Amino acid sequence: MPAGANLRYWIDLALECIRRDHTPGRGAGEQAGPCLSARALGMALAALHDGNAMAFGVAPLLPVSTGHVPTGSNPVIAGAAACHQLLTLRYPHQARYLQPAWARWLELHDFASTGSGTETAGRALGSAIDAFGAKDAMLGKTNTYMATGAPYTHDCPPTDPGQGFYGSDWGRASRLRARQVQNFPPPPGRVSPTAVVPSPDYAADHAEVAQKGVQRRALGTRTAQEEVTGIYWGYDGPAELGTPPRLYLQVLLAILDNVEIAKPGALTLNDELKIAAAAAVAMADAGIEAWHYKYAGTHMMWRPALGIPRALAGNGVPDPAWEPLGRPDTNGNTLRRTPNFPAYPSGHATFGAAAFQLLRLFLVEKGLATFDPKGVDDVRFGFVSDEFNGRNTDPRTGEPRDLLTLEYESLWAATVANSLSRVYLGVHWQFDGITKRGPAGGDSFGIPRSPAELGRTGGVWLGAQVANDLALAIGVTAGTIAASKM
């Protein structure tokens, strides 16, 4: 079995665990939702990387105190054992799938037996990384948030009154590698945990979402292509798809495949493992950042499903009958639902920017991509989202959606589209994800044409800061980060 296939085997296994975990009959929701699934993915790929790296005597992504593999050990076995152990501990219900996967891997490599010292060290590393997040289940699955019904605060929407609240305490989880982002701005108009003042930027955003995100396209200005974009970037936890971090890593792997086709050997297997693992760790930490601010009184914001029907003077015109198009709910049978956690900042925007900014930086550092003077990259790619793979079904028709490939001229363009997709579904305000840098140094409503115009308000900027921090850990220089303009 080629060494490259070995690498992809374990990455694909981690992604498959997310898909199965969200699919009734295949998984049990053990790491359900974007935060826990991102955490499990980040830990699994860090284990794969660090077991391999330690065997080579190279610095791991995570602190050495999380475990140790002796230098000179077989890196293939060490990384695989660490990854498999982590996945087994995080997804015990999937043991019936994971144990045969390990046996199959041994067979493909002609490894006659298990239980070697290297495997033992790798498994100890996987266990130590899992133990680092010993409180994850408690923080990710319990809820201490109590809705007050106050304007601008999060609550269950009228279309889904029993949805509950996800991740209220996740912002207290320990980060794997990135430092906490400081000085992240609140959304427009929020000046304290109890006060939101009239803001022209909020009012403009209200009008935009009311038109672009309304349930029936004929009632607003959403185009057919915008609706496709909204669904394409979905992955809102449905059966057979899972959550957004799975999507963003799928895109990353597709781009790495494109690089290998265009320039064979330009990236080593260790390079590919490093960027895949670092991106997964960045998304895991980005989830902590986003959810910390989502439930913070200084930053909390209701979603359009509440904010448009109940708009207050100065920040939009109320429309009591307004309902969102809603999350895709692929392979399900519900409509008009909105995610069960506060709007600001957008998790999609934060996760996506963390992964795509890190990949932009890595490819430019390796001389495989460039930034223009305003920070736009030239990483062109096409990708088939599982939302449009010709098999998964639309809840409105009960039929499989078309097989579609969307093309992007840059990772920057994909980052923007991913953020705006949530507006087209009516589940986010535009400022939750992205804003423009204002003329007086602040931020303003609008879509930046380049990273040089990106405002600090929203998840795109927040995720990019997490990526910039991780980039230094994988050898990206400060000059490359500065050239990215994010």
Task: Walk me through the structure.
The protein has 486 residues and is mainly alpha-helical. It is 46% helix and 3% strand. The protein has 16 helices and six strands. The chain has helices at 3-21, 34-56, 75-90, 95-109, 117-132, 136-141, 200-212, 224-232, 244-262, 269-294, 304-307, 347-365, 411-424, 430-433, 459-473, 478-484; strands at residues 190-192, 195-196, 381-383, 406-408, 436-437, 443-444. It has a two-stranded antiparallel sheet. A hairpin with a 2-residue loop joins strand 1 and strand 2. The longest helix is centred in the middle third of the chain and has 26 residues, at 269-294. The mean pLDDT is 95.
**Whole-number average pLDDT?**
95
Low-confidence spans: none
**What Rg do the Cα atoms give?**
22 Å
Coarse shape: globular
Distance between the termini: 40 Å
Strand order within the widest beta sheet: 1-2
Briefly, what is this?
By secondary structure, this protein is mainly α. It is 46% helix and 3% strand.
Topology:
Layout: H1 3-21, H2 34-56, H3 75-90, H4 95-109, H5 117-132, H6 136-141, E1 190-192, E2 195-196, H7 200-212, H8 224-232, H9 244-262, H10 269-294, H11 304-307, H12 347-365, E3 381-383, E4 406-408, H13 411-424, H14 430-433, E5 436-437, E6 443-444, H15 459-473, H16 478-484
Antiparallel strand pairs: 1-2, 3-4, 5-6
Helix pairs in contact: 1-2, 1-3, 2-3, 2-5, 2-10, 3-5, 8-13, 9-10, 9-12, 10-12, 10-15, 12-13, 12-15
